[in-house]
Amino acid sequence: MGFEKRFLQHRGISVIQKLDPSLPRLRRGKVGIVLAGGAVSGGAFKAGGLRALDEAFLRRKLPHGASQPFGLTDFDIFVGLSAGSILASVLAAGISPDEVFRILRGTSETYEPFKPWHFMRPNAFELLHRGGLFLDKQQELFTNWLSGATDSRTGQAFSFRTTVGKMTQATARLLPTGLFDPTALEHYLRRNMRRAGLPDDFNESFRRTGKALYLTAADLNRGEMVVFGHDEPYASIPVSRAIAASCAIPIWYKPMLIENPRVGEPGEPDRLDLADGGLMRTANVRVAVEKGCELVICYNPFTRIRYDRAGRSLYEHGLPTLISQAARTLIGARLDLAKELVYRDETIQADVVFIEPASDDYAFFNMNPMNFWNKDVASTHGYEAVASALASNHQLLAGVFRAHGIEMRPLRDQPPPNADDEHKRRPNLRESRG
Q: Which of 72, 186, 206, 274 is most buried, most CB within 10 Å of its CB?
């Protein structure tokens, strides 16, 4: 009986296997990792989970039969959006998940500690700019009425009543477009990339490492996804600026305004007004596949919870809990549709492994996504949750990875961690520098 594609799910792990593992590979295919968003706690959850995933790998076979040690920094392609863009950029630069874990905890010698003001600088200076836009619009409306200009929609001159109504509506231009300024994050990243000796340029990064980094954001004016990378049209935009654009969550951040390096080309505006990449996709598996990946690991930290406690409902917990469930449902449902598309689309010839929180992970569900002070707890919990999920699915995952020449570490002699007893355990997360 011939090979049939598979779609399997168990405790936070979904596997879509579309390549026949029995067929010999004439060449070693590319492997990629796709990191979705997650804000602060979700980013920290991913950082801990990435460390557990890195520890699960052992080695990879080379084309001539030998093998070499293998970890997350040895992937060929890194794709990130929103908070995932930060993690993808450091992994692509060769910074290990162990070091990422230390950066998050403020014990790194590579990056300075990440503080609240690095991502929560008040958007105060925009008020001056918006005041100018408001006055310009008021002058335009008043001049149109005074000169007797004709309204293009009605074919009649602007009336005084219509003009006053439009001038009142124009007061919306005074409102800031976000609570915080994303350029604070850009400045932090640029400063620390320079400090660590990492290039803030997609082309130079690829030239040095041979690893391809792709980040995505949403173009607000065109309602389209923008992809940044060394072989993409906007390759000249600095990595730190592309990350800030990808992280610019609407309302939380004002849009990231970037001078368009392609200005003058047909259809290209003078400026790109960009927002969080999560507006367009929950993750970007297709980007990795289109760049030649035959194995993709997609890590999404936010999915809906199954609240199965007898006789109770999330309604009892109030508005914040309902908003959290609604947002996670939207994110998780979009990714479920993406999984279905990957499984059914015959043009996608790759094996894809999705890592998400288990549907009964109440501990992570209760963490506020924007709470900076949750990050240590979230990273520890992410490590434990992913380690548990990998152990529960070890046999399945080992077979999928083996088909791509990647060997997983064998399970330890002790039983895998039980997710139901996580609150009783104290994880031993030493900060090794080896």
A: 274
